[in-house]
């Protein structure tokens, strides 16, 4: 991916070279922003570290630590054909102020250019809150994010680390010289959760870690009700149990499943589809039984993960 400069041998992102900025997702410790390079047929994402205590972009990124973990523990398990290694990049804090506006955009909205994104009248709030309005909006009161502490840090090192990787929701139609693909890009994003019991000396827990967290979140009213999905079922290796787990996840995603069609999120926990037939028409208009094909493909990937785990354990 083109960039004009390097900082300490790490590529510096020039956001003026990108267009079509949009929000891709969020986890406990990250937000993901997507953009397309103006001169290349590839859409990328930047994974930005979130602060532990608030929904803002962290001043101290964990991107380098995460990349070391991926290289040490994830890459050795997977063939390079099935995994895109992230690239460590740097983003200047003045650019980060505007890039961090993207997670606040409405669902599936894109901002055409970085110049447009810099319009503080249209887009006044940022998750990298150096301005007074954003700081007030997000309640930035803890001491290590006071401007007296933040500004000297940025003066010394004005760049924030991020991980850059291809955006799997929009794949180029031509990957190799001899391979041209047709039709929409259908992307399934699953957070399968921990697929084994967590053992502690002297503690006998009959639930997996995911189910325990679901109980906690339900009691705290973060979720209205529990879902039937259990990662132990998904990674069981049994066809029926795996399919039932996937169907449960599709019926009630709970932030652990999203589906994209040509870059637009068409199904997640914010979309209420009471039956899978209606959902199937949204994803595969005019096609019969294609949802079962999709479920079978996802189950196959999970099955291969089980085999991989058993091989290396």
List the helices and strands and how they pair.
Elements: E1 6-7, E2 10-12, E3 18-26, E4 30-37, E5 43-49, H1 63-74, E6 87-92, H2 93-99, E7 111-113, H3 114-117, H4 132-137, H5 147-156, E8 159-166, E9 174-176, E10 179-180, E11 186-190, H6 209-219, H7 231-234, H8 239-251, E12 257-261, E13 264-267, H9 276-283, H10 290-312
Parallel strand pairs: 2-6
Antiparallel strand pairs: 1-2, 3-4, 3-7, 4-5, 5-8, 6-8, 9-10, 11-12, 12-13
Helix pairs in contact: 8-10
Report the uncertain regions: none
Q: What percent strand?
A: 15-25%
What is the general shape?
A: globular
What is the terminal separation in angstroms? 37 Å
> Topology as H/E string?
EEEEEHEHEHHHEEEEHHHEEHH
Question: From the alpha-carbon coordinates, what is the Rg to the nearest angstrom?
Answer: 21 Å
- Can you summarize the main beta sheet? 8 strands, mixed
The number of helical runs is 10
Number of domains: 2
The count of β-strands is 13
Arrangement of strands in the largest sheet: 1-2-6-8-5-4-3-7
Structural class, from secondary structure content?
alpha+beta
Percent range of helical residues: 25-40%
Mean pLDDT: 80
Pfam families: Ins_P5_2-kin
GO biological process, one term: inositol phosphate biosynthetic process
Keywords: ATP-binding, Kinase, Nucleotide-binding, Transferase
Catalytic activity: 1D-myo-inositol 1,3,4,5,6-pentakisphosphate + ATP = 1D-myo-inositol hexakisphosphate + ADP + H(+)
């Amino acid at each position: 991916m083109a960039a004009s400069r390097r900082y300490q041998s790490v590529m510096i992102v020039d956001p003026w070279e990108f267009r079509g900025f949009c929000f891709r997702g969020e986890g406990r410790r990250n937000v993901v922003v997507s953009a397309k390079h103006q001169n290349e047929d590839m859409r990328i994402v930047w994974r930005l570290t979130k602060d532990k205590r608030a929904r803002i972009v962290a001043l101290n990124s964990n991107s380098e630590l995460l990349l070391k973990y991926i290289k040490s523990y994830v890459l050795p398990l997977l063939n390079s054909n099935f995994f895109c290694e992230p690239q460590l990049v740097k983003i200047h804090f003045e650019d980060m102020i505007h890039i961090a506006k993207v997670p606040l955009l409405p669902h599936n909205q894109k901002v055409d250019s970085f110049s447009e994104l810099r319009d503080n009248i249209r887009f006044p709030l940022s998750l990298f809150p150096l301005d007074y309005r954003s700081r007030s909006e997000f309640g930035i009161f803890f001491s290590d994010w006071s401007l007296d502490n933040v500004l000297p840090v940025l003066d010394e090192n004005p760049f924030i680390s991020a991980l850059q990787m291809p955006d799997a929701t929009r794949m180029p139609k031509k990957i190799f010289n001899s391979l041209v693909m047709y039709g929409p890009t259908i992307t399934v994003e699953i957070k399968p959760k921990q697929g084994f019991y967590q053992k502690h000396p002297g503690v006998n827990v009959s639930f997996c870690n995911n189910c325990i967290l679901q109980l906690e979140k339900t009691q705290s009213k973060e979720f209205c009700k529990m879902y039937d999905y259990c990662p132990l079922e998904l990674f069981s290796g049994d066809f029926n149990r795996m399919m039932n787990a996937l169907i449960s996840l599709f019926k009630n995603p709970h932030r652990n499943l999203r589906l994209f069609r040509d870059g637009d999120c068409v199904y997640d926990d914010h979309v209420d589809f009471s039956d899978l037939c209606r959902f199937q028409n949204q994803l595969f208009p005019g096609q019969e039984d294609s949802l079962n094909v999709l479920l079978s493909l996802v189950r196959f990937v999970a099955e291969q993960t089980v085999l991989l785990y058993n091989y290396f354990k």
